[in-house]
Write a structure and sequence with these properties.
Chain lengths: 334, 334, 334, 334
């Protein structure tokens, strides 16, 4: 069976998914849509597919699944429309910046018995996957502490930051999902510190660029997340899990693994410097998992609920910063 | 000039310092004291020095400096006695478990114009020292975030834990001092999470075994400390500093640097598994710095004040756990 | 311009090249040929191309280039036929097992002004390429010593070994080419040791499984190559260059970069264990370079001459083993 | 029992051994001798021992053992004198630069039932020792191939080189001994390449600065040794053993284990740059082994025979370079 796809949104992340869909032998990219005609046309030309309007895709009988890569504020509406249209829906994170709106949207999905997968690509990274495997096979014993360091090479434009919902909902949200993926137990309380250290303009836009978060589960398992919007040495993406029997850690990735030694020392190249070259395997595996779940009818994972819970942790972290206290996740999820 | 020493306390840490003093060509170990005569005699025999009573050492004209390695609850009294006796005093951390008592003690030291150095050995570790050097020489730019992972191979006996003042004052205190050493700015607020994950008996003794702490300075610099009382793979001691220009990290230490590769993978040995074999160079350098400061008259570092501030951070962390909120250090130091 | 390809030979390496051609947006895989019809059909089905006979491909007007992946003893004949047919030819190493036959074949190529590229894929590996770049940009100063370790996870079947021309012509030949790629000067003398250590059957087939080779250029630059047909820990592929100013080394590659630490030590996974998963990027870049050279008319590299010289080094190494002496390359090339 | 020592020769290596002897609690450094009175006096002052003439040490009843650190051409004479005087003798490598003279000397030692240990310090390096342990405990299976890279940070003065016996007898000799230590079987044939690449003056002095050597045992086990007199990045000392079950490798050593990451990459410091700071633990363990053997009466190891065999391999390597052929060790040892 070949799953016939439309990609909604032909921006940066739309391109990433168009590539992943095209490279999957069980998928066919049929159409792309974008409010900006030239963007849609360029992407369609690159992959030899059609440009169609959203409405046409909704009504199309030759499209089984959509990948939503449009601006965040359109996500929940599009999810609702496309589950109602009977399409399988893959939506980039986040479902929405409002927990209430996400809940509403997920109710629609449920009522329609819709199929929804949310795009937390890092779960599909082979390195992080191998850490999870070390947990699952018992090598680490009981998980006790998860440590996540996630630093971007540089901040996005201020215009992006202003619409992003803030660092916790835009950047840390990936780490919240990774924490849930690795802890094996739901976080119940969150404490966070946040500061503006790399660029004052980020602070003027009402956001932070340097944050640390601690999570805690009901049984006391701990997680620490450390984020910065700037790392001169590349895209720093590390996870580490301490368990009763041992520890597993995923190392950073480089384009080439060489070392040059001189009187100044032994130097390895900087890290890969962008999510698009750091995570191509993850994006491919993510789409493959979506296709598999469509085929098998198995539950989609990460689910809409996963999207909701990561967002709730982001809201809790922000509340913790604002109020200077530990915040229960239940305060957010109600 | 040779500095003539007495070591007070012939237990584990007393032995460490006796070895460091004996190995220093500018020092002479003249006497040891211990309430347990056999312990004192064994140590004296090993280094060819005398056993003397505390009072005799206080009065001795052939002793210039003392190293206080007795139980914590005797530290502040002994500091006061020996500065009054005109000896240079090196005291193992902590000065006392009570901030109030430490303040009182430091007033006595000041009034006597006494010379006091507090034993935060890790400042003298060559690896951590090299990280500090990378800060000082500007390689990292402005310091933004310090990350400290410190995990013991295993917990001390419950009897020790009961008298330890708790994990923050006993174990994390080293990391609080390291944070201050690396941040280059005083932490003003502390938030902490704490749990009992490795051994219920530790919880029954009123303590924790797994803690995470976030610190923040007035200008917003961040620090995260992560502790566990158990690491099956050895004594895990890492520091990492992120700055505006780059990052520096100190790696863990092993007894031997080999790798064995088989079908099961590439395996390096576990880490050194004890503070006594992880930090011998640090203990030697620490005593050397004490001797240098005695000779030069320069300020002792780490000072009594450093001891006080690390203890205040420990108290703040504990208060944060108890009250579920961010605690200002000024709430502790008054 | 799209270059239209036929792949001759649908075996293991034929598949590798079919994948590389198909994945290149400037290429189109038109046909495959194989004496074994089912193999050709399977490959054609996988990539949606035709099965054709060699003769049909030779005569086809819709094919610009061929990739020769047939058994070694057909390589030189096919090269001659296809350059005469006006096709650009990419031939897997070696051109032939006989230096004399290679020379004859290259004369035909030259007479026909044919375009021939020989498949030494490792030159296109990004890691080895980065080492070469460190030479070219002057970071290492004058090259003095090249060290190549190349160990297969396991030996090929004895039936393969019997037709392979022996380890020097089958396996070390890649390292001879790499040595030439990195030395920047032609080797003039060769000395080798060889033994049978992993499997007696290899010796009974008249071959060796464990060899070491030293090369030397006219100006005295040195190279050491170390090969084994068995490495339990994976496909061990390292190069290292020592120069007057420094050293560059390419590290081995793994599927995932994680480390698991327990009381038994810190373990990273074994290496990638097959040339097909170790070198996919190299095979893609190699075909891309072939396509570029077709388009630009620039000299093909590695050339037929490169194929000849690597083979000559292999012959010289074998002669050195047989005669227990240093062999001049000129003794082979005449 | 305390072994009472004299150190003969107060130069660089004499100081190394004086320190090792002084730091051993089972030893007492009683006297030093040196033709240069100021050197002897300085060393005696540093360790609080006497200066004595060689003859006085020979006759002394308060000296049990001597460490010979005088110029090479005096070694064999001194060994003979001191075994005749009934002292246990530790002699720095080499026993002599002439195989014939070494044989003669060892006959005297045997006739006198003398105790002689030869100084191949690297056998006592904990990292190399751990590799040997991985062989001994069966982790690697049958040893097949040993790879030794040994590069000095820089060449010694030409005046030293002129009296050194050449790079094979002066530098590679350590690697020959290491090869024997790791192969577990005696090398029977040697082939070598040699060049002058780092400094023409070395060639004018009749020596080489860049050499590679291949060794082979009776059963076909292989070893490769690669030497250079220059490595800008420090003292490069690596050994690697490939066996039927796996591989073990010892990594290089640094003063501090930190990494600094910037936009230019991840940089670790250069290696330790001198044998005196790279091998202090080895020198201490070596003297401890000597003392142990004196006490227990067990055979000394490395023995005079070990010194002879390493020298024979050096002579064979030189002969191989001169004659451009594989040389049987029996051609040298007769």
């Amino acid at each position: 069976m070949t799953v016939r796809f439309a990609v909604l949104g032909a921006g940066r992340i739309g391109k990433v998914h168009a590539r992943a869909v095209s490279g999957n032998s069980a998928a066919k990219l049929v159409a792309v849509a974008d409010a900006m005609a030239p963007a849609a046309e360029a992407l369609a030309a690159e992959y030899g597919c059609e440009v169609r309007a959203i409405e046409a895709i909704e009504a199309a009988s030759d499209i089984d699944a959509v990948v939503i890569c449009t601006p965040t504020d359109t996500h929940s509406d599009l999810i609702e429309r496309f589950v109602k249209a009977g399409k399988a829906v893959f939506c980039e994170k986040p479902v929405d910046l409002s927990v209430a709106r996400v809940k509403e949207c997920l109710k629609v999905v449920e009522a329609e018995k819709g199929r929804l997968m949310v795009g937390f690509n890092r779960r599909f990274d082979p390195h992080f996957g191998a850490v999870r495997k070390a947990i699952d096979d018992g090598s680490l014993g009981e998980v006790e502490m998860v440590t996540i360091v996630s630093r971007d090479p540089g901040a996005p434009p201020i215009s992006y930051i202003e619409r992003s919902g803030g660092i916790f909902r835009d950047m840390t949200i990936h780490d919240f999902d990774m924490a849930r993926f690795l802890l094996g137990e739901e976080p119940v309380a969150v404490t966070a510190h946040a500061a503006v250290l790399t660029d004052k303009a980020i602070g003027e836009a009402g956001d932070y660029d340097s944050v640390n978060v601690m999570l805690e589960t009901a049984s006391g398992k701990q997680c620490v997340i450390s984020n910065s919007r700037r790392a001169t040495y590349g895209y720093d993406q590390r996870v580490e899990v301490l368990g009763s029997k041992g520890m597993a850690a995923a190392e950073n990735q480089r384009e080439v693994s060489i070392e040059v030694a001189t009187g100044a020392g032994f130097t390895r190249p900087p890290l890969l410097d962008f999510f698009m070259n750091r995570y191509p395997a993850a994006y491919s595996a993510e789409i493959a998992a979506f296709i598999d779940a469509i085929g098998s009818g198995a539950p989609m994972s990460p689910s809409g609920e996963d999207g909701l819970l990561a967002l709730a942790l982001a809201d809790a972290a922000l509340k913790s910063v604002k109020e200077g206290r530990k915040v229960q996740v239940s305060e957010i999820t109600g």
